[in-house]
Amino acid sequence: MHDHGSHKEEEPKGIPRLALIGNPNVGKSVIFGYLTGKYVTVSNYPGTTVEITSARAHVNKKEYVVIDTPGVNSLLPMSEDERVTRDILLNEDIEAIIQGIDTKNLRRGLLITLQLAEIGIPFVIALNLFDEARSRGISVDAEKLSETIGTTAIPTVATLRKGMDQLLKALQNPRVSTFATHYDRRIEDGVVRITPLLPDARISKKSLALMLLAGDESLNNWLHEHLREQIIREIDNIRLEVQSSFSEPLAYVINHSRLMASDRLLKEVFSETGKREKDINSSLGRWSMHPVWGIPFLLAVLYGFYQFVGVFGAGTLVDFLEDSVFKGYVNPWAVKLFDYIPIMILRELFVGQYGIITMAITYAIAIVLPIVGTFFIAFGILEDSGYLPRLAVMVNNIFKAMGLNGKAVLPMVLGLGCDTMATLTARILETRKERIIVTLLLALGVPCSAQMGVVLGMLGGISFTATLVWLGVVVGVMLLVGYLASKVIPGTGSDFILELPPIRLPQLSNIGIKTMARIEWYLREAVPLFILGTLILFISDKLGLLALAEKIAAPLVVGFLGLPIKATEAFIIGFLRRDYGAAGLLVLARAGQLDSIQIVVSIVTITLFVPCIANFFMIIKEQGIKVALYITGFIFPFAFLVGGILNFVLRYYQVAL
Amino acid sequence: MSEHNIDELLELIWTQQEDGKDSLNELLRVTDEENAEDVLKRMAQDGFVVISGDKLTFTPTGEARAKEIIRRHRLAERLFTEAFKMEVDEKIEYNACEFEHILSPEVTESVCTFLGHPPTCPHGRPIPRGKCCEKFHKEMKPLVTPLNELQPGEEGRIVFIAPKNHTRLDRLSTMGIIPGSIVRLHQKRPSFVLEVGETTLALDGEIVKEIYVKRV
Fold first, then answer.
1. Is residue A45 part of a domain?
2. Could you say which of A277, A594, A619, B170 is the most buried, measured as most Cβ atoms within 10 Å of its Cβ?
3. Is the same domain home to A588 and A525?
4. How many whole angstroms separate alpha carbon B80 and alpha carbon B78?
5. Is the same domain home to A425 and A334?
């Protein structure tokens, strides 16, 4: 998840920089929060802090810019995240690094430690989650580790602030590691030949030479900025020569040497004493992705989600805000206020049928906000608990049929909260093909929480069968479209290699801060659109455009979908906000103007209908105008087609709903 | 006339027998060998085959030798198609013919074990069992198996990884999946989940198949 609350600002030059580096899920962000006093999004899903967070802070009474980098597994970039982190080391003036290590996973942490040692920037190590390691019967000799590596390693439990004082103390005097990894003679020879060709850089020439030997293409730009063409070619020749004496790729050979070296280190400092305690968390982790029990587990999670978001958020909270607060106080007051203003048009603009207060604000605050808010809380809990990657394990095979893999479950679930935000999160997927398919499916069939709240409210009024028909049609259409899209859209999918973090009890404070940041984002992004949408409606109504559009669309809506003419309005405003459109239908249904079949047909159509305007803009921003137009151009007729077919089938077979 | 010709004919007689044929004339009609008649006469003298009229049968010595050749040939085909992912076509036929003459008994057994004692060749014909296969029935399991053939809960030491592309290999290696590492297969469905040290990874079955392990 991106940290939408933080703004990207250039930190001033001249202030020394501290970088936090480590594998994903080692608690870097918690350490960052401790150092800077600001909390950023801590999330369990790999690749979810693509944007970097930095903050100015006083550490040991000295001013620093602290940079929180995306989690990495190696400094030889294999992903966008890893490239970003490596580039920070390469391009920023880093005075010192704090490496966060998940203590029980020391082996993989050491792989990065060895590379940091090579790079030659002073660093200290936080052996974080020390308590979790201990409960698994693991102990690490921090002193011996410090001694061998030649820098300081401190056991910490960042969430409980344990060991943080010592970490700060070690930061007063960070050391450059003296540890050197030994590589195959042929590799070392290559390094010796390349280093004299390299310019001075912020990281050691040896580490650069190794990155180049490994064929790190992401260094290309940097190379061309700093070296002449001829020298670059020379380096490439050396690389090819060295490569020719190995059957495996050099990147792999180098990694292998590093892993061997870290395994030797591990033998000295790492011990597993006795058996691990069988704790409830790891059992939950197993059940949640068990081929059989994983399904009831998922259903239980969904049920809990529904109870909290659907019943509590969309029911209790909405009732309270809408009926008691807005209908009881806000709107009457506003109307009263406008009694003093004798200008009719202004009065209608604010408190009329399409009024900014009576429609837009009521809508945004009383109906959508409670639903979105409870959704974000529930989503944050899922995210921090480590359940989402396990959900990816459950659905990987289904997603494979749609040209995606299990990782796509994150944007899809997030889409149930807000499709616009989810479209942005599609970035975590590796290939363009996957990103386009997910964007398409989000725009097509994933109802956002606000829309879903309204839809479920309407369905609840009919029958369970109606809910099943709606769900079946929407899911079926998504599977079909996903499958076809995977055949039609060029490109490839990506490998499903996903790390599963341990199940952890989410921290309430973290969820609180995350939810606030997301709600702030919602208020900033969505509420203006609500107002804009209402304005467009208001103006269209005044100019008689609404009536005109209704007339044009009438044959389609009335003839093909079998809906009353009034429903056209819902589809028109549905483009501004999908839930807004659904709510228009809800009003019609409450007024008894729709029968059961009409309700099902109309909500299936509005669920599949074009994305809201915010989502549309986000698609343009992320995928380009061409893709956005293609997607909309496909969805618009397609949604009506499905709705029309459904209408025909339900009527022909006289399905009782 | 050489050992090579004799081997080729023994092989042909074996496959003819598999198809239920024992006619000398039929054999002479289908063989590519020059001077096949002369070679067969010599084979009869050396005690590999018995010829009576049109009927051609193995002696026990001849049958044992033919069985070894067939076994080497078909194992070689398996090796090409499974380990090297070659297409089943004339090229592998040709290469298998070369291989059948150079594989020593020890290497043959290693290949057989490596492949997990396959019962048939890629064309579906049976591979004669060897000594190593008998042992297999009693105590031995194949030395190296694709990771996906482990049972959930079993552990294996990675022997080699044969990925489709280098990026995959690099990425696996940064997660600690390299030869020498011990992996535990946690589950196969709905997706493969492995444990390497304290890291838990979910992977596509397709990738898991490319990781070869030795049970520990």
1. yes
2. A619
3. yes
4. 5
5. yes
Within a domain: A134: yes
Give chain A's end-to-end CA distance (angstroms, integer): 40
Q: Which residues contact A599 (CB under 8 A, 6 or more apart)?
A: A458, A459, A461, A462, A466, A585, A589
Query: Which residues on chain B are in Cβ contact (under 8 Å) with A496?
Result: 191, 202-204, 207
pLDDT of residue A43: 43
Cross-chain Cβ contact A136/B189 below 8 Å: no
Q: Could you tell me the residue range of the domain that residue A636 belongs to? A: 294-495+509-652
Asked, for residue A2, whether it belongs to a domain, the answer is no
Map tokens 């979810």 to a residue. Answer: A48
Q: Looking at the structure, do residues B76 and B114 belong to the same domain, yes or no?
A: yes
Question: Is A108's CB within 8 Å of B200's CB?
Answer: no
Residues A460 and A596 in one domain: yes
Q: Is B23 on the interface with A (CB under 8 A)?
A: no
Tally the domains of chain A.
3
Query: Which residues are CB-contacts of A633 (< 8 A; sequence separation ≥ 6)?
Result: none
Residue A269 carries which side chain, given as an amino acid letter? Answer: V
Secondary structure letter of residue A162 according to DSSP: B
Whole-number Å distance between alpha carbons of A495 and A406: 10
Q: Are residues A141 and A231 both part of a single domain?
A: no
Whether residue A234 sits in one domain with residue A303: no
Prediction ipTM score:
0.71
Pairwise CA distance, residues A575 & A610, whole Å: 6
C-alpha pair distances (Å), A267 with each of A27, A144, A182, B155: 25, 11, 17, 20
pLDDT tens figures, A163-179: 999 999 999 888 999 89
* Domain edge (last residue) among B93, B110, B138: B138
The nearest alpha carbon in chain A to B163 belongs to A248
Q: Is A430 exposed, middle or buried (0-12, 13-18, 19+ CB in 10 A)?
A: middle
**Burial letters for B58-97: b for 16+ Cβ neighbours within 10 Å, e otherwise?**
beeebbebbbbbbbbbbbbbbbbbeeeeeeeeeebeebbb
CB-CB under 8 Å, B167 with A78: yes
Other CB atoms within 10 Å distance of the CB of residue A326: 21
| H or E element, residue B185 | strand B182-187
Using the beta-carbon criterion (under 8 Å), do B191 and A389 form an inter-chain contact? no
Q: What distance in Å separates the CA atoms of residue A277 and residue A471, rounded to the nearest whole number?
A: 42
Judged against a pLDDT cut of 80, whether residue A374 lies above it is answered with: yes
> Nearest to residue B8, comparing CAs of B73, B64, B60, B52?
B73
The verdict on B90 and B33 lying in the same domain is: no
Residue A223 vs residues A194, A207, A209: alpha-carbon distances, Å: 13, 14, 11
Residue pairs between chains A and B whose CB atoms are closer than 8 Å:
112
Closest CB from A111, A285, A397 relative to B191: A397
How many contiguous H segments (helices) and E segments (strands) does chain A have? 30, 9
Six-digit token string for A80:
């966008």
Q: Which residues constitute the domain of residue B206? A: 145-215
Radius of gyration, alpha carbons of chain B: 22
Within a domain: residue A81?
Answer: yes
Q: What is the DSSP string of A451-494?
A: HHHHHHHHHHTT-HHHHHHHHHHHHHHHHHHHHHHHHHS-S---
Residue A42 has pLDDT above 70, yes or no: no
CB-nearest partner of B190 from A256, A260, A394: A394
Distances (CA, A) of A259 to A45, A254, A255, B183: 25, 9, 6, 15
Q: Give me the pLDDT at residue A273, please.
A: 73
Long-range contacts of B39-48 (CB under 8 A, 24+ apart): B39/B1, B39/B5, B39/B6, B39/B9, B40/B9, B42/B1, B42/B6, B43/B6, B43/B9, B43/B10, B48/B6, B48/B10
Gap between the Cα atoms of A315 and B45, Å rounded = 97
What residue ranges in A449-599 does DSSP mark as E strands?
Answer: 497-499
Q: How far is A69 from chain B (nearest CA, A)?
A: 18
What's the CATH number where A153 sits?
3.40.50.300
